[in-house]
Design goal:
The complex is a heterotrimer of chains A (194), B (407) and C (362). Chain A is α+β, with helices and mostly antiparallel strands. Chain A has a single domain, classed as Alpha-Beta Plaits (2-Layer Sandwich). Chain A contains 6 helices and 5 strands; from the N terminus they run αβαββαββααα. Chain A is elongated. Chain B is mainly α. Chain B has a domain of 271 residues. Chain C has 15 helices and 9 strands. Chain C has a 3-stranded antiparallel sheet with strand order 1-2-3. Chain C is 48% helix and 14% strand. Classes of the chains: A alpha+beta (194), B mainly alpha (407), C alpha+beta (362). Chains in contact: A-B, A-C, B-C. The interface between B and C is large, with 43 and 58 residues. Strand 1 of chain B pairs parallel with strand 6 of chain C.
Chain lengths: 194, 407, 362
């Protein structure tokens, strides 16, 4: 019969009025974030970085600028460049995470926040000093070892460089640099400190 | 200089008017005290309409939000109550444009032409027991006549804007108004017949049971018709937001637009008050000597809720469908209602023309099932037949793939 | 009277411009003007290596990113001659169907919005889409521009709390969707406004090479998931909804039914999936196919047949990447859809074809 469909529609709308509103009132409340969220600030562990610039090469937009020079200790321990400039332009970054995917030493991670708005263009570029001093709450994006340990960047403590890799922390003494190891558990650091 | 209000004046019933008249009459000549008393009450009524319109915009946005399962505006003031003030401040600070080539005098006069009939309508509505500005004995006719004057304003807006889209919207609105005026007027005749007078106060007094039960068809036709005259969804084709024509108020900005918008919302408020008076029993209710105003407000809010509820649920009708609805569906319904009511009143009334409570219940018992039946069956007249589409023959279909077909 | 429905307009699905000639209220002539969102994706793809192009494909049809990724990864896998592992295929099918639901929710919501229902069904469909996007965030870190798939599979396995969240979503969404059906499908105003409006006959549809729900609404049951199954679709059981007249109501109905069929596929994927690798393990970071190989990877996207034609010259980037965008090809029927109908119907008909300007202009 005519009109019944319309009456049913009215009932649906009325029923929705009695449900709790779906709105989340920003900035007092925030949407629940998941550990794999690709955040805006980057988490960089200088102790693990060798200056290979794989991240810069793999970035689709060419945002990362890395300038290195030969380090004093290069012939002796590890193959690590001295990093002079490491700029990431946040204003053009699309947070795709390909740089994180490319990094062979697990030293670059996505962050976990999204409120990095600034007022001027110069402030939107992250320099190596900012990367050194930022809080280290890495997202578990493309880092299965962090996920297996159940880490949640939003509520968790900052992680140090020894806890975030897939291999033992003194890999460079035993393996050739650049070889990615699979599935070793993370020990406590050995007595031989760097 | 002592002036007392004569007891045959139509304002005699109005206690406030009488009070102001008598007190002012001790100081100033009678004609002045007449003016002072009238102006005071008019000021109160105008304020009530404008403030009411502002509050109804707030109510509409929050209620629409809840019907959409979200919160409405809640940042300005507690529960967002200062949101209309924020909107008003924003509109006042906007630049007041008059398009080139537009007729300046008419363009500027439009908000006034739209607002004045609206405020005039509040003069005859009883807000509490025997409380109204003027107890006109042609109250219903007055309301019907004055409510149509708003559409003149709409057409003036469309014409003087020098904008073909605005003219489109205005012409549509006038067509809709003319179509819907006829069923609306005829549907109110039943109410007038039962209560025996056109004065709104007498109609409320005659409602020992609300006329919602006695005249359900009239209520349906009146609500639908007024919804169309107010340009509300599903009939808001004159100001359709999602089409390229923004309607008759395309060229208006700033405070003129604020006044036009307030008129539309205020018209919804006043029409809800009229429906509450005519069909739901106005200020009737327990403790009506003291709380008459409270019941009136409650019933008005209930009708406003129905308007907003319908707006949230239904899509818009096309213009030819709106016309078909009026002429093919509402007009026959209201004529049938008039005929049946006339027969019932003729048979049931006693010698003095009065209808008792029992008579009203008998009429309700006849009218309600008939209303349901008629609305459900006659709705089919409004629907256009779609059998004229060709039946699909020889469609290239791929065999062996499981398919579902539409009904 | 010639009117310009300009690029900025509340209901043209993006920056789409139409020049329409009216005769009173009836439309006499239509001229679409495109290109307002052209970003040069195909040329940019020649400068980026095969994995970086995945991020470009996200942004073409931005309402259904996973399916764009899937089409591109299929093309690259054809170039390299590899197939992803089983679990990778099931995961791809799962997220593609979830993305199809999300895309159709947008289509349906905005269709009703253009009919004038002041956004109530839009709010309801977006409420459900929020939950799908939340699932995507759980899976790959981003809601809309996902870049989840890589040539050779997907880039990461699902986290542990994904499966309970997915099942909870499916149960809740079944209830919400039924509610939306009650609100919409039998509404007499909706049927009065959309039935019989702008019908497209099946011959016209095939001659204009439309695909997707528009073609199926005209009565042709052509769906690439059944015709040439890719990923895990040959193991899934689902029906193809078809319409009868090809009018606005049928296109709307087909999309609503496809949402239901997608839910069926997702449930089958949950039952059938088994642990295993999700990506081919020894692919190099930078892919180099052989010289002179070309590939055509096509999927049934939410808007039609989406295909990538890749030509390789042995380098790290494709030599030519051509996108067969369904929305652009579906716009061929614009004239037949609009001429002879009135202005309010125009808005609704364009909404029923469901174009996305990111795809039309790339």
């Amino acid at each position: 019969m005519y009109g019944l469909g319309m009456a049913r529609g009215l009932l649906v709308t009325l029923k929705n009025m009695t449900k709790k509103p779906f709105t989340i009132q920003y900035p007092e409340e925030r949407v629940k974030q998941h550990p794999r969220f690709r955040g805006e600030e980057f988490v960089w562990y200088e102790e693990r970085c060798t200056g290979c610039a794989s991240c810069a090469k793999y970035c689709p937009l060419g945002i990362i600028k890395i300038v290195t020079s030969p380090s004093e200790s290069a012939p002796k321990e590890g193959d690590k460049y001295k990093l002079e400039v490491f700029d990431i332009e946040l204003q053009r970054c699309m947070f795709c995470g390909l740089c994180v995917e490319a990094c062979p030493y697990d030293c670059l991670f996505m962050g976990s926040g999204f409120e990095q708005g600034r007022y001027s263009r110069e402030d939107m570029v992250i320099h190596v000093e900012d990367l050194r001093n930022s809080a280290k709450n890495p997202s578990t994006f493309y880092r299965p070892q962090l996920e297996q340990s159940g880490y949640d960047p939003r509520g968790g403590r900052p992680l140090s460089w020894r806890e975030v890799g897939r291999e033992k922390w003194d890999w460079h003494k035993r393996e050739k640099a650049g070889l990615r190891l699979i599935e070793t558990d993370i020990d406590s650091p050995s007595e031989e400190s760097r | 200089m002592n002036c007392q209000l004569a007891s045959d004046s139509i304002f005699y019933q109005n206690a406030l008017y009488r009070f102001i008249y008598d007190t002012a009459g001790t100081l100033v000549p009678c004609s002045f005290s007449h003016v002072i008393a009238g102006l005071t009450i008019m000021l109160m009524l105008v304020n009530s309409v404008l403030l009411g319109a502002a509050l109804v915009t707030w109510l509409e946005r929050r209620l629409l939000g809840r019907l959409h399962n979200r919160i409405g505006p809640n940042r300005w003031g507690p529960f967002g109550l200062l949101q209309p003030i924020a909107d008003l401040v924003k509109l006042i600070t906007k630049e007041d444009l008059v398009p080139s080539g537009a007729d300046r005098i008419i363009f500027t006069a439009v908000p006034l032409v739209m607002m004045v009939p609206l405020v005039l309508m509040t003069a005859v509505i009883p807000f509490a027991q025997d409380t109204m500005l003027a107890d006109l004995n042609i109250g219903v006719l007055f309301i019907l006549a004055v409510s149509s004057a708003t559409t003149i304003g709409i057409f003036m807006a469309g014409w003087s804007s020098n904008n073909r889209y605005a003219l489109f919207g205005a012409a549509r609105s006038v067509a809709v108004l003319i179509s819907y005026e006829v069923p609306v007027v005829i549907s109110l005749l039943g109410v007038v017949m039962i209560s025996g007078s056109m004065s709104l106060n007498d109609i409320v007094h005659a409602q020992s049971i609300p006329f919602l039960l006695v005249q359900p068809i009239a209520l349906f036709v009146f609500v639908t018709g007024m919804s169309a005259e107010l340009n509300r969804t599903p009939f808001d084709i004159a100001e359709a937001e999602s089409e390229i024509i923004a309607g008759y108020h395309t060229e208006y900005s700033g405070i003129k637009f604020a006044l036009i918008f307030a008129t539309e919302t205020g018209a919804m408020l006043v029409v809800s008050a009229v429906i509450a008076t005519l069909f739901l029993g106005g200020w009737n209710g327990p403790l009506e000597d003291f709380l008459g105003w409270f019941w009136f407000l409650l019933k008005t809010l209930a009708i406003i809720f129905v308007f907003i509820w319908v707006r949230a649920t239904y899509p818009r009708l096309r213009l030819d469908q709106i016309m078909a609805l009026s002429w093919k569906f509402l007009l026959p319904l209201s004529l049938i209602n008039l005929a049946i009511t006339a027969v019932e009143v003729f048979l049931l009334r006693d010698a003095s023309g009065h209808l008792s409570l029992a008579d009203l219940w008998i009429m309700a018992a006849i009218n309600i099932p008939m209303a349901i039946l008629l609305i459900l069956l006659m709705g089919g007249l409004f629907q256009k037949k779609i059998n004229s589409l060709p039946v699909r023959t020889e469609t290239p279909m791929v065999p062996g793939v499981p398919t579902i077909e539409v009904k | 009277m010639t009117v310009n429905v300009g690029p900025q307009h509340p209901s043209t699905h993006g920056v789409f411009r139409l020049r329409i000639t009216f005769d009173g209220e009836e439309i006499v002539e239509v001229e679409p003007i495109l290109g307002y969102l052209h970003r040069g994706s195909e040329k940019l793809a020649e400068e980026r290596n095969y994995v970086q192009v995945v991020t470009l494909t996200d942004r073409m049809d931005y309402t259904s990113s996973m399916i764009n990724n899937q089409a591109y990864c299929l093309a690259v896998e054809q170039l390299l001659g590899i197939t992803p592992p089983k679990r990778g295929k099931y995961l791809r099918t799962l997220v593609a169907e979830l993305q199809r639901i999300a895309s159709h929710l947008i289509a349906v919501g905005f269709f009703i919005q253009e009919l004038g229902a002041f956004g109530t069904p839009l709010m309801y469909s977006f409420r459900s889409r929020e939950r799908i996007l939340d699932l995507f965030e759980m899976l790959c870190g981003a809601r809309v521009t996902v870049s989840y798939m890589r040539p050779g599979g997907v880039f990461a396995d699902t986290p542990n709390d994904f499966w309970p969240a997915l099942e909870a979503f499916l149960d809740d969404f079944a209830v919400e969707f039924e509610e939306m059906e009650h609100l919409l499908m039998e509404n007499e105003i909706l049927t009065a406004r959309t039935r019989g409006v702008s019908p497209i006959s099946p011959d016209l549809a095939i001659n204009c090479s439309v695909s997707g729900p528009v073609l199926r609404a005209s009565g042709v049951n052509w769906d690439w998931r059944k015709m040439s199954p890719y990923d895990a679709y040959d193991e899934m059981e689902f029906d193809i909804p078809i319409g009868r007249n090809g009018d606005n109501y049928d296109r709307f109905w087909v999309r609503m039914q496809e949402i239901k069929q997608s839910m069926r596929i997702v449930r089958q994927c949950i039952d059938i999936i088994e642990p295993g690798p999700v990506r081919i393990a020894d692919l190099p970071l930078v892919l180099r196919p052989e010289v002179g190989v070309e590939a055509y990877g096509r999927v049934e996207a939410s808007k039609g047949e989406l295909a990538f034609y890749l030509v390789s010259d042995g380098g790290v980037a494709p030599y030519r990447c051509k996108v067969r965008a369904p929305s652009l090809i579906n716009l061929t029927i614009t004239e037949h859809l609009l001429v002879g109908w009135t202005l309010p119907d125009m808005i609704v008909s364009l909404g029923s074809v469901d174009i996305n300007m990111g795809e039309v202009d790339r």
